[in-house]
């Protein structure tokens, strides 16, 4: 009896969980793997899972999918839209949504494992399937590594992974070299002095300090980075105050920074820190801002030879036009830690989840940004098919390419 | 057996409650009033209380105290500091503190009632004591009026109230005419378009929209109001986003506006609205901002004749230097609704709660703003004595002045 | 033959001169004074003039008028509008206009001298008439004092002066105590690093540094000054760059600051300097900004007794309603140096130059700001009459009040 | 007798002229061409020159050099530094400097013509040498075309040109396809309402309007353009006001915009216009801003085949490492109009003018931006040699490659 992948996908979509809280998701995955006759270890890196298919002599191929959802309030209007709520690390009740397609990643990997199990006479080697938690915190792969995943399982000859993205369905995007940006997540706390909303002069207003800082941070990208280089400085959250008539004592900013490499990281971080500190001085703050790095992700660098080999395999399987070079993505991933720490080559590719006609119309109309919701948008929703089938096939083709 | 007012005060201080949630506070008040042999009605205007002392023919004097605390995390280090938590109207868990001295107001009114009950042979008339909830929402007095307090109790010949403030202990501040500013509390929701933190171009960033709005709102006071007029535009809270790598779909600002009268209100409100709407246009927002008035407070206007009479009485009781004209305060109050709706005159005064030597040192050192915490500061803490005794005496002197 | 004051006024209006360049103006004044039979000394404080009327024993009354125009391009459309050009201290060709009414001041003083000369049998004492240059630079009175005017002419028993302003014609505004604000004029040079407009990352952009500084300076008044205090921080000029595709090496700001007294001056200056320096740091400037004080004016403080006496005289002459308390003006003057340095009392008053009906309509319509051009506006234009006649009468009444 | 190219260069450097004012420069060029025995036409496109070398049957090769300086105050400290002053189109006296190396371009072309004249036995065809004015206004090539240069001279088979740049001396940078960005120069006039610096409420402050606009314009690049795309929004000049105590009536901004193609141009222009208009609304401006396009430059697109051929020739002449792909430059050029209008292919390359050791040290130290002045910087100064010799050789090699 084959897995009903579409039902699995809509079930996962309707029940997203935040990073390191993917316990229901893990249970669903474990049950399906058991149905395939596979042994599965749960709780690897807190909420991750690993399963292994040993099929004679041959290369060791790691297939990785991430599992976690995001604190986003789903607005897709889908029949299987999420209404879930979770609790974020700060203890706040937040909505949760699979706004980055990790439900699709999990389902495609389970579908691929089913096919690979059914065709063991056609290939040889070892498959290690890794269901990784907490990609969105940039912490899950390191948690699994800290938990010994690289020692306790066969060492990879290659690490493979994929991500669904707003390309037209049917299209694979992959490039040799830097495929995704390096990134850092920072928390900045600006310290002012609280007081009565009617007496600003007796306070040091952290709301104005934060606003001035946000405006000034725009100049890092607009003025201080070579226009030909890639850099992003996003203030993803800003929080201060509880009531209109109380000037609060502090403000908190959460920043996401992106760049292609470590040299750029150092330059941009230096500029951000310079601006944050100077804007506190401009406010007359009595205490320096607190700047904390919450996570730090390396660039995702595809092995040049393995990428060429896989692109060739994809073209053979899906046609000449099926593979494009999408350029470096400004998004970031922690998948590369598995490759970096083990010394194995990595190939990480994107596959399209947008109805091709809709995509073509948006391109023609110049309305891509408005009409094609991106990952992390409350409207993000890959078309179920052919996205799901292609997600399965991509993994099968890729695994088979590197297996014997 | 007399009331232990100091214990009452520290108990109330340690157990603050948010607006319209003052149920423990109401219970404490009711118990003390019952101990004084007074009948008390609870639940007036949700969590308010009223008691009446009828003592023969004579004027009807209303004495009003407010009861609620604020969502502020106490940092006074006092032995009786609050560690309370509450739930704000949006459902968030927040710290709570008596950061505006309403605990002092309640205690002083109970102390004054005790003295007035003990001296009924010295005066004639009727005292109506009003323990009002939710002053901080600008909603409590109107809730009591909607609940019929003006019809169900003797109509006031005068309404009296007082507020503890960072004047030196021993000093009363009161002036005829406008004593406190008119004020509005606004909530502004700025609508952007959410998306991935690494792809700002696919979003309409509400964090930047909010920051630009906050910076532009500064120009209302700095450029558009006559420098000789009083106006305040405070953004007391700013909230957007849940995670560094998700650009949220909207941002919320809470504003507190202050002005001396309704003409200024109209002008300033118009400017604020113009700026908010234009900044959304500058961001290319696809939806207009939502601007809601949460509360609207009239100016607190002291009756000229009654204020002169009371100032004279205060000087007689406490010495010539005991009364100063503190100018108009930019803070606001909803006490005046009792007077406006009943047609009675109002006198509302401030009394000092700061150690006089500390105050003098701060004046001499030019460090008032740094060293003397104001109302709504996490460090706000009137010195217990003589502040409490004087709060009691003020009310007794004032009530006796207007009673027969 | 009497002076044709209207022709004199329109001639002066059509030929304004910048500060310390009032040579044509001085010539016109000298000729008229000579026609009145008065001896006049020219070149006092570079381009100023002084004349004296000695008429027996009695008090010495100084009457002062200022003479200079402003770098404003007149847009009044008047038949006698200025088309003059001048050269400012930086060597730039600029338009010039009597946008502050000093032409009216000069004409009124000449008219008053004519009347006083014609009525010497009615009064006794000494009149010193001072035509002061360069009030707009805040430098003229000090230049005259440095030139010995206080030693070389009879020491004043009182110093009197007046200013035309957008009050209704017929109204005098005067108050005891602080009549006009203290003020400082600052020049701020922000040092960046120049380069090609297409390569911002190789520069330190002084245009953005200047813009951020201007926005942040708004918070001095909006957040850091007690809303009940008077303060103004105006950036009256901003200059950087010569071409769209060259990022310049520096930017220049000229600031005008206003406050009621020296304590406020120190506080505001400190805040301005803090912000300017911090914004340079935020830009990563390699050189500290240069901050220069161009002029520094004391508050204009009217003597309490003399003001009461003069207000009484004005009411007697022009009717009870003719004198109002206009509050402290945020404008500034250097007239008070004559009084400060000589120890004499000062009275400085405003008189109205707006058609009363037009003023009343603007008040009723709430369009004062739009419809009634203020001093320094390119549309500033007192109605010729009754403004001029009243300017003459004011001085005659005032001088006679203090003469024997 | 050969031309003393070094003396020619330092003479041109010391005597820069603004766009369309290059009359002395034209005279120097004309004299040198005459010395070479060439006929020269002056006044083509106002101040441009053209000369032709006809040398038998063969291709027609156009060699172009631009001639104009910039309003920059030279700070190189060179013995031959410019102290020249000019008058810009607005009538202002400004400093003038060869801050973009056009003096080097002119000298190198004269040197190359000398060599080509001396070697006519080695090549066949026709050379058209174009000395173009007003490149910095983006107007010179169109002026020459309007003046009939394409009709009156042999039609080009190829158009060649070069630009000195901060690459190491000895290095040529060239790439097929888009070599330089498209660009627009805009003038924005923001209309406020002028008035007295002490009465901001009676004005609509254009300085604040301009500052807010500059800050908001940063978000075009930081938030609204794909981080992987190239775009620049520079405000190269900002001007408002003449005096600290007059709030002016308007502010003027000059913008330089850069992008790779016309689609991006349309998007960025739309965003800039949206922000400018919205910020005027935020200020309550009574009149819409005036936005004028001063010039509009197409991208400089190198012909793919001709670039390959020329790169090969350069490598053959100067060694394998001598040619690099410098990426698209964000600077812009009007040279391509000659190719676009005639239908000929274009190759435009950069050559290095920085001492190689100094360049290497700056790269190693991460101080490129600080230590290597770029074009348009007041410190821009190519090392005289080998820059000049290589400029000559580049042109000779390139011309000979495309001649018979």
Automatic annotation (TrEMBL), chains A, B, C, D:
Mn(2+) binds at residues 100, 102, 136, 163. The keyword Metal-binding applies. InterPro entries: Amidohydrolase (IPR017439), Bact_exopeptidase_dim_dom (IPR036264), Peptidase_M20 (IPR002933), Peptidase_M20_dimer (IPR011650). One of its GO terms (biological process) is diaminopimelate biosynthetic process. Keywords: Hydrolase, Manganese, Metal-binding. This is Amidohydrolase. It comes from Microbacterium testaceum. The Mn(2+) ion enhances activity. Residues 185-280 form the Peptidase M20 dimerisation domain. Its cofactor is Mn(2+). One of its GO terms (molecular function) is N-acetyldiaminopimelate deacetylase activity. The keyword Cell wall biogenesis/degradation does not apply. Gene3D superfamilies: 3.30.70.360, Zn peptidases (3.40.630.10). Pfam families: M20_dimer, Peptidase_M20.
């Amino acid at each position: 009896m084959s897995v009903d992948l579409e039902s699995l996908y809509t079930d996962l979509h309707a029940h997203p969980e935040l990073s390191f809280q993917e316990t229901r998701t893990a249970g669903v995955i474990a049950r399906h793997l058991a149905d395939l006759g596979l042994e599965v270890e749960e709780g690897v890196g807190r909420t991750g899972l690993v399963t292994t298919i040993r099929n004679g002599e041959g290369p060791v191929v790691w297939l990785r999918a991430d599992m976690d959802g995001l604190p986003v309030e789903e607005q897709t209007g889908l029949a299987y839209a999420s209404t879930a709520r979770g609790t974020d690390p700060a203890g706040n009740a937040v909505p949760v949504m699979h706004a980055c397609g990790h439900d699709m990643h999990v389902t495609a990997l389970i579908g691929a494992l089913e096919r690979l199990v059914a065709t063991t006479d056609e290939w040889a080697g070892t498959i290690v399937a890794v269901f990784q938690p907490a990609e969105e915190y940039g912490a899950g792969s390191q948690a699994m590594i800290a938990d010994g995943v690289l020692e306790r399982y066969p060492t990879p000859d290659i690490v493979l992974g994929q991500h669904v993205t707003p390309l037209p369905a049917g299209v694979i995007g992959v490039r040799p070299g830097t495929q995704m940006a390096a990134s850092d997540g920072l928390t900045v706390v600006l310290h002012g002095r609280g007081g009565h909303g009617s007496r600003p002069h007796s306070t040091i207003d952290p709301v104005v300090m934060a606003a001035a800082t946000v405006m000034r941070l725009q100049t890092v990208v607009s003025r201080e980075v070579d226009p030909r280089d890639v850099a992003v400085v996003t203030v993803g959250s800003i929080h201060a105050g509880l009531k209109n008539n109380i000037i609060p004592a502090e403000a908190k900013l959460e920043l996401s920074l992106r760049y292609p490499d470590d040299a750029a990281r150092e330059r941009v971080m230096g500029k951000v820190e310079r601006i944050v500190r100077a804007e506190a001085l401009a406010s007359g703050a009595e205490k320096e801002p607190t700047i904390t790095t919450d996570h730090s992700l390396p660039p995702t660098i595809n092995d040049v030879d393995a990428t060429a080999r896989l692109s060739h395999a994809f073209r053979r399987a899906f046609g000449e036009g099926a593979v494009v070079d999408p350029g470096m993505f400004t998004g970031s991933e922690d998948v590369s830690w598995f490759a970096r720490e083990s010394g194995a080559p990595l190939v990480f590719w994107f596959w399209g989840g947008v109805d091709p006609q809709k995509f073509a119309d948006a391109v023609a109309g110049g309305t891509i940004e408005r009409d094609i919701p991106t990952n992390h948008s409350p409207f993000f929703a890959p078309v179920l098919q052919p996205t799901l089938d292609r997600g399965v096939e991509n993994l099968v083709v890729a695994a088979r390419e590197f297996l014997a």
